[in-house]
Amino acid sequence: MSHAFYIYLSYGVSALIILAVVAWVWLDGRARQAELKALDAAGIRRRSATAVSEASE
Asked: What is the pLDDT of residues 31-50, one digit of tens each?
């Protein structure tokens, strides 16, 4: 076997790992956005949102 096989294999494994991490971050971001929408629909607001609204009054 040539060295090229191991090099291409390592690039392929690295690419798969990077793609898996990107997909994980993207899916986790979508899940967190859904949780935030559910909390917002339930009437739970961020603490920083009340400070901004009080400052504008």
From this structure: 999 999 999 999 887 777 66
Supply 42's token pair. Answer: 């339930």
Instruction: Tell me the whole-structure pTM to 2 decimals.
Output: 0.66
Name the one residue in this structure whose structure tokens are 């096989």.
Answer: 5
Please give the distance of CA 5 from its chain centroid, rounded to a whole number.
33
- Tokens 């920083």 map to which residue? 48
Q: Nearest-CA neighbor of 37 among 25, 50, 46? A: 46
Task: For residues 40 and 54, give the distance between their C-alpha atoms in angstroms, rounded to a whole number.
Answer: 18
Q: pLDDT digit string (tens) for 7-25?
A: 999 999 999 999 999 999 9
